[in-house]
Design a protein that fits this description.
GO terms for molecular function: glycosyltransferase activity. Keywords: Glycosyltransferase, Transferase. The chain is of the alpha/beta class. 42% of the residues lie in helices and 21% in strands. It contains 12 helices and 12 strands. Strands 1, 2, 3, 4, 5, 6, 7, 8, 9 and 10 form a 10-stranded mixed β-sheet that branches. Strands 11-12 form a two-stranded antiparallel ribbon. Helix 7 packs antiparallel against helix 8 and helix 8 packs antiparallel against helix 9. It is globular and about 60 Å long. It starts with 5 loop residues before the first strand and ends with a helix.
Length: 332
């Protein structure tokens, strides 16, 4: 009997320095029924030729091209092309261990889970952090899995260290033209899953590189995350209200982290304050729901500062403020 097929979606655009290592790691996968769905998102360097070579060499590698539309639409394209019963995602500048998809699939089948998650290592230049080869795992129900997703200690919103039943993507698509697309859809996938199995074993290697989208200086596209958060808050409130305290805590952490990033990245006081105003506008709409769940005193002080229209970081001695008219107009 033929083993269940897994479709691995690999969107890429101008990553010729890393793509071969990524695809080679997929060519070495031990799961015997795999298809690799490569989506060329308008590359202008040598990435396309590298992908073409793998499609020519291996019958289970498939290459599709589209004009540059961004990672979200490339992943949607991949989902439309995928024929497997299970879906995995690999970022084109990362790589995976040979047993990754076999281990994830076996764990999911053994526990009748809809999502399987493995650990990941990080690569900094030539240095890779340690692998965990423990074989232990835990199985979570829907509420537990969502709680852990927002708590963010054993796994986070990233798609790349997980294996999903394709049926979870029914009526779920990546928001075209947006970044933070993992954040936008991950909660919906976990809401659709009855059970999730989490492996301690390390299967994925994430490459930290300075010129990735989320390592760029803070820019307007990063505000896409607040559009995603509004959708998440609405859906979680309706579907899994018991998890909302953890949603509010993660949303608060996300906001404070964004403000520190703004301070670090933007030397222009005017530009930094404009982003602070936009972030604050989103945050204070939810302030009354958030505040009761923030028990850490330092964090409570920070969210009160945001509500009052300023944010000060002692570490960098920087101050973000919104002007008085903006504060009055937006309910501050």
């Amino acid at each position: 009997m033929e083993l269940t097929k897994i479709s691995v979606i690999v969107p890429f655009m101008n990553v010729e320095a890393y793509l071969e290592e990524c695809l080679e790691s997929l060519a070495k996968q031990t799961h015997p029924n795999l298809e690799i769905v490569m989506i060329d998102d308008g590359s202008t360097d040598g990435s396309s030729k590298i992908a073409e070579a793998y499609a020519d060499r291996y019958s289970h590698f498939y290459l599709y091209s589209q004009p540059n539309q961004g990672v979200a639409e490339a992943r949607n394209h991949g989902l439309r092309r995928a024929t497997g019963e299970w879906i995995g995602f690999v970022d084109s500048d990362d790589w995976v261990r040979a047993e990754m998809f076999e281990q994830l699939h076996k764990a999911a089948e053994k526990t009748s889970s809809d999502i399987a998650v493995c650990g990941h290592a990080r690569q900094y230049g030539a240095r890779v952090t340690e692998f965990n080869d423990e074989v232990k795992s835990i199985v979570l129900n829907r509420e537990q899995a969502l709680y852990e997703l927002f708590k963010g200690e054993i796994y986070r919103f990233a798609l790349w260290n997980k294996l999903y039943k394709k049926s979870l993507f029914a009526n779920v698509t990546f928001p075209p033209g947006k970044i933070h697309e993992d954040l936008a859809i991950s909660p919906s996938l976990f809401i659709n899953a009855e059970k999730t199995v989490v492996l301690a074993w390390t299967g994925y290697v994430y490459r930290a590189r300075e010129n990735s989208i989320l390592m760029e200086r803070y820019h307007k596209g990063r505000m896409d995350s607040y559009e995603a958060w509004e959708y998440i808050i609405e859906k979680m409130t309706l579907k899994e209200p018991a998890v909302m305290p953890e949603v509010w805590r993660r949303y608060t952490w996300w906001t404070i982290d964004a403000l520190y990033t703004v301070m670090h990245d933007l030397a222009s006081r005017k530009e930094a304050n404009q982003f602070f105003g936009a972030i604050r506008t989103s945050f204070i709409k939810n302030y009354d729901a958030i505040a009761p769940h923030i028990t850490d005193k330092k964090t409570a002080v920070k969210i009160k500062m945001i509500r009052s229209g300023f944010f000060y970081a002692k570490e960098s001695n920087r101050l973000l403020v919104v002007n008085i008219m903006q504060r009055l107009q937006r309910g501050g």
